[in-house]
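Re: the 419-residue chain
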Amino acid sequence: MNTLTYLFLVALGFSLLIQLWLTLRQRRHVAAHRAAVPEAFTGRITLEAHQKAADYTLSNTRMDIVELFFGALLLLGWTLGGGLEWLDIQWRALAWSPVMTGVAVIVSMTLISALLDLPFNIYRTFAIEQKFGFNRTTPLLFVSDLVKQTLLMAIIGLPLLWLVLQLMQGAGEFWWFYVWAVWTGFSLLMMWAYPAFIAPLFNKFKPLDDAEMKQRIEQLLERCGFTSKGVFVMDGSRRSSHGNAYFTGLGDNKRIVFFDTLLKSLNVDEVEAVLAHELGHFKRNHIKKRIVSMTVISLLSLALLGWLMQYHDFYTGLGVSQPSTYIALTLFMMVAPLFSIYLQPIFAWVSRKHEFEADDFAAQNSNADNLIKALVKLYEENANTLTPDPLYSAFHDSHPPASVRIAHLSAKLEPTLSS
């Protein structure tokens, strides 16, 4: 074993221990606060709903631990266990071009990994989600989604993968810059195309037909100076009873989407407040900032890969004897999360900061009390725990803890109440 092997094993061990420690903290904290509704939610959330959310969280975190260990074993199997080496040897025996061999290796590895992950996805959908009354996905719909996703990945992903490997193989020393340009362009194209061409393959979208709600939304959009291709209702209830709302698209192809489950649970005032929050993300340039940050990170990552793949120890230290561009890409994608995990709290902090800013925008352009009411309903209906462990939340959660977020919004009401 060379130095990189030891570094890899240490990184894997630390990553595993950190995630296990945080998950166990979350389980202990949620279980310890299961018996009583937090003071901030007294009279708003029933004890039964609070305990359901706690039990839902405990079930999911139990599954997280199983998947955590399975993922670590799978990574060891692909690398030091010789799985990737064996797969590479089988495809090299066909004497195809390096690019086509690379496509075959990466696709076959991806399919094998997906098949190994499939039991976990099935269990989460048909055991955990079913147990807590959220699942509405039938086995036929589950299989249909799986087939569509696979075909979509083949139609879109294979040409992109071929182009990336072609550039890595023949574009010279600065291949990583050309790959970055291609990847950035592809990502922007997908953001633009997703609402019109991809999302409708999985869900039905229809224009909002509630006249009163549509008028209130149009007035809000006009006040905020936002234009879109329309407001749509998505049949989220086909798969789950969870409710949500989101913006999608880019440029002149932006859409506002409400889950039908959300519209059934919120009144007009609350829907307007939720939309104002989503508009806050747009008006505060959170989407643009996210695109820029991801673009910079991808450039730095590809440059790092360009440097690493020059060293033979990079391959042998991770269980592969024959260097190649496609093996370098595969190893980097598998191992990078062990080191990028330490950036996760920073990304989570930025995301929570953006959520506060969007809440502030909603309070200014709609009504903070209506947003509070909407959030409380969504916390209850989605069984979001009201008592996450602070460290676990700081590391994992893209949204502020429920009590912190409600307190932040409640402070916006004080000037109004005092006047």
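The radius of gyration is 24 Å.
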